[in-house]
């Protein structure tokens, strides 16, 4: 980029009478004029994902272009604070970890110079925006394009036609440059051509409880898969015409979970259309595709009805049946037992449906989990049959996060402190962070660190005061649990612990309690009844606590509204304690945990997902681990777990849990709280009572919170734990992850 010219032109911009949106578009468009995407080499990797949770692009792009500081200064001269652009809302084309991971990987691919090309959907409406009304979550459509979309370029001439049995749809690419050592492209497709067509890129995760909803989901997944495959094949043909023998050599395609798995039968379909035999096409597919699993929860494993597929994608359905036959033939040849055959079956007779995970597992060259423990669990349980015959197909690539967004941008104050000790190289070479270990016992460094934390907390508290109307003052220890709302993440367990703190404080049982803030941030899927009940319950508890003058100043709860990437940037920088308390075995990795660690929060959590690696790197003495390990949970699941007898023996917790039904709190007769109570004590929706083992871990959780709270009294000692986490977070950079993908999976 010609930095100087850009800045010169920026100086000439007239700001008079322009609002934030206008200026945002003008400056962004100006920057875009200077951005030239890198040449695409013959061999590259494509990353297919139904979500890309990019968040705010403006600051990140200026940062990557190396002009953020200068732009800020020039605007200042004109009387504009660059923070003005915080008014521009995030593009939330994703809903959680998997989507944010895709965004961090795009960032890292460009940063380390790997040719990595993203393919996704340009949803008109991203993840809903959240409001609370009386503590109930309300959803508002996310019309992110009302601010314009200056960082994308519509590529009319590269549009394609996607064919369903009953309709044709135009897939129009919008290219977003991803800036780093290389400039890669994230290509998001918009569906056009008719009102029906437009629905396909209408919203992220449309409800799929009706047949119509399911068909729309299938259309979305196929739309993404077919557009991406069409693009990749067309690029290839520019070089080799109709000779496909180099296709596998030049392409590696990563399937981000099963949502883009239709890319497999689609590639086979296209290659057959070009004249290849089914078997040659399958052979190519087996070389180019790789599959990342992100969850073992049975309800999140996709199965598509053969009847629905036949209706709108008959050819794809036929090809899936062929792949199923190929798999059966191969499994017989390789001696899979009947049980193993059943477990790996692509077409599942009893359900009249295709298992998208098994399709991916059979075809993929490499299959990976997203943290060590998760990769072990998929080898041992979910994909054990395949692992028994093809251990060479399995890899682990522990997730990572982009330190440029999650440390440099989110926490310039801590970044400056790091720069002072070890220089500026860590932005591209995060392993250099290790050098901070020389300063973890340095008094002056720790005092500066404490100051930085204090400042970030102060900034966050003022922001919370403005946006949530909750006033927080004085020195506080900040506990944060921010992530999607799901029962397995156990926000409900934190709610119980928080309520217990409140009662114990009131009864004078907690001497020397360091004033604390418990911060929650989470969106619930609109149709997830129980998750919505948990949100309301937490909000009720917070209302009770914050209104009580007796505990005021010592305990505050806050549930931030509209938790998103930009809010996360503020929270991870400020938190002292990162709450990561999922039932062991169920959080595949977590990436929030890494963002907190990098910013110097200790992890208070279970031995699950990447928490295990965090503790391994930063030391058990610098984190707070509690609760049942995976092995114990697996034992408990086999039988012998009785939540009711636990409650009988622990009246202090029984009293807390019964606030769900004894009238302490009101859900306005909506039945949320009663249903939650039943789910814990009787069981519901095919689950046993307390399916996520809250009562197994609750008391230990509470004691661990108290321990951390007590340790914080020694502020310097606690700061040392926190700073050790920063110093040892280099493993969790997505630069490291993406290099592992490039070397071990894509062979780039
Ligand atoms: C499946 C079927 C039907 C409808 C929806 C879905 C569905 C949609 C989204 C299933 C799963 C997802 C998203 C999963 C996800 O975000 N998983 C998270 O991935 C992160 C990145 O690897 C991990 O860090 C988290 O542990 C994991 O929960």
Describe the secondary structure blueprint for this structure.
Blueprint: H1 3-12, H2 20-33, E1 44-48, E2 52-55, H3 58-65, H4 68-77, E3 91-93, H5 97-112, E4 116-121, E5 129-133, E6 136-140, E7 153-154, E8 160-164, E9 167-179, E10 183-192, H6 195-200, H7 211-240, H8 247-250, E11 251-256, H9 263-273, H10 278-288, E12 289-292, E13 303-305, H11 306-312, H12 314-333, H13 338-344, E14 347-348, E15 353-355, H14 356-363, E16 366-369, H15 372-382, H16 384-389, E17 394-396, H17 403-409, H18 412-422, H19 443-468, E18 477-482, H20 491-506, E19 516-521, H21 529-546, E20 555-560, H22 565-574, E21 577-580, H23 592-598, E22 602-605, H24 611-618, E23 624-625, H25 630-638, H26 643-649, H27 651-657, H28 672-681, H29 694-711, H30 715-727, H31 734-745
Helix pairs in contact: 5-31, 7-9, 9-10, 9-12, 11-12, 19-22, 19-30, 20-21, 20-29, 21-28
Bound molecules: ligand 26Q.
Which small-molecule ligands are present, each listed once? ligand 26Q
Counting DSSP H or I runs of 4 or more residues, the number of helices is 31
> How much helicity do the residues have?
40-55%
Task: Assess the beta-strand content as a share of residues.
Answer: 5-15%
Low-confidence stretches: none
- Largest sheet report: 10 strands, mixed
Let me know the number of strands. Answer: 23
Shape call: globular
* Rounded radius of gyration (Å): 26 Å
Q: What would the average pLDDT be, to the nearest integer?
A: 97
The quaternary state of the protein chains shown equals single chain
């Amino acid at each position: 980029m010609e930095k100087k010219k850009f800045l010169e032109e920026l100086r000439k911009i007239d700001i008079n009478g322009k609002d934030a949106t206008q200026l945002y578009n003008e400056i962004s468009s100006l920057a875009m004029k200077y951005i030239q995407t890198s040449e695409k080499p013959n061999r590259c990797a494509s990353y297919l994902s139904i979500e890309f949770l990019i968040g705010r692009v403006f600051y990140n792009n200026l940062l990557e272009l190396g002009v953020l500081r200068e732009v800020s200064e020039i605007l200042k001269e004109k009387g504009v604070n660059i923070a003005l652009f915080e008014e521009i809302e995030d593009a939330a084309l994703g809903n959680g970890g998997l989507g944010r991971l895709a965004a961090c990987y795009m960032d890292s691919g460009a940063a380390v110079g790997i040719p990595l090309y993203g393919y996704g959907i340009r949803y008109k409406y991203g993840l809903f925006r959240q409001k609370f009304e009386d503590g109930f979550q309300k959803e508002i459509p996310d019309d992110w394009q009302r601010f314009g979309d200056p960082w994308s370029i519509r590529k009319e001439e590269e549009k394609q036609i996607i064919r369903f049995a009953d309709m044709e749809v135009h897939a129009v690419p919008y290219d977003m440059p991803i800036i780093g050592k290389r400039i890669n492209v994230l290509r998001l497709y918009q569906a056009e051509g008719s009102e029906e067509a437009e629905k396909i890129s209408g919203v992220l995760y449309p409800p799929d409880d009706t047949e119509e909803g399911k068909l729309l989901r299938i259309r979305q997944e196929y739309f993404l898969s077919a557009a991406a495959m069409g693009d990749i094949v067309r690029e290839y043909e520019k070089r080799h015409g109709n000779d496909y023998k180099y296709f596998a050599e030049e392409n590696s395609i990563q399937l981000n979970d099963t949502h883009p798995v239709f890319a497999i039968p689609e590639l086979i379909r296209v290659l057959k259309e070009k004249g290849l035999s089914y078997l040659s096409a399958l052979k190519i597919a087996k070389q180019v595709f790789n599959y990342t699993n992100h969850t073992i929860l049975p309800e999140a494993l996709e199965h598509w009805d053969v009847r629905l597929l036949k209706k709108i994608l008959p050819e794809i359905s036929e090809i899936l049946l062929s792949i199923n036959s190929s798999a059966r033939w191969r499994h017989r040849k390789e001696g899979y037992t009947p049980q193993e055959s059943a477990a790996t079956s692509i077409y599942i007779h009893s359900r009249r449906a295709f298992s998208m995970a098994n399709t991916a597992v059979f075809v993929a060259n490499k299959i990976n989990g997203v943290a060590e423990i998760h990769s072990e669990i998929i080898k041992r349980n979910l994909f054990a049959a395949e692992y028994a015959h093809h251990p060479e197909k399995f890899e682990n690539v522990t997730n990572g996060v982009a330190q440029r967004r999650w440390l440099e941008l989110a926490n310039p104050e801590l970044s400056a402190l790091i720069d002072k000790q070890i220089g500026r190289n860590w932005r591209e070479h995060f392993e250099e962070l290790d050098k901070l270990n020389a300063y973890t016992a340095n008094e002056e460094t720790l005092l500066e660190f404490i100051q930085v934390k204090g400042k970030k907390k102060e900034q966050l508290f003022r922001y919370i005061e403005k946006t949530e109307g909750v006033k927080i003052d004085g020195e506080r220890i900040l506990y944060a649990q921010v992530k999607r709302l799901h029962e397995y993440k156990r926000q409900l367990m934190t709610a119980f612990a928080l309520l217990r703190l409140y009662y114990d404080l009131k009864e004078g049982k907690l001497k020397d309690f360091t004033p604390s803030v418990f911060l929650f941030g989470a969106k619930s899927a609109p149709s997830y009844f129980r998750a919505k009940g948990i949100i309301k319950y937490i909000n009720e508890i917070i209302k009770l606590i914050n209104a009580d003058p007796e505990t005021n100043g010592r305990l505050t709860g806050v549930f931030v509204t509209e938790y998103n990437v930009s809010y996360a940037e503020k929270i991870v920088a400020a938190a002292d304690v990162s709450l990561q308390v999922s039932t062991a075995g169920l959080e595949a990795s977590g990436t929030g945990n890494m963002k907190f660690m990098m910013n110097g929060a200790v992890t208070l959590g279970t031995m699950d997902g990447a928490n295990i690696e965090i503790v391994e790197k930063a030391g058990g003495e610098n984190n707070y681990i509690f609760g049942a390990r995976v092995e114990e949970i697996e034992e408990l699941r086999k039988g012998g777990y009785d939540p009711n007898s636990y409650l009988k023996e622990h009246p202090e917790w029984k009293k807390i849990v019964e606030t769900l039904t004894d009238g302490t709190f009101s859900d306005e007769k909506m039945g949320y709280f009663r249903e939650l109570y039943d789910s814990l004590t009787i069981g519901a929706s095919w689950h046993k009572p307390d399916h996520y083992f809250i009562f197994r871990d609750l008391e230990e959780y509470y004691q661990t919170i108290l321990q951390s709270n007590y340790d914080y009294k020694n502020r310097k000692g606690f700061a040392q734990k926190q700073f050790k986490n920063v110093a040892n977070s280099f493993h969790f950079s997505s630069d490291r992850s993406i290099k592992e993908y490039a070397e071990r999976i894509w062979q780039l």
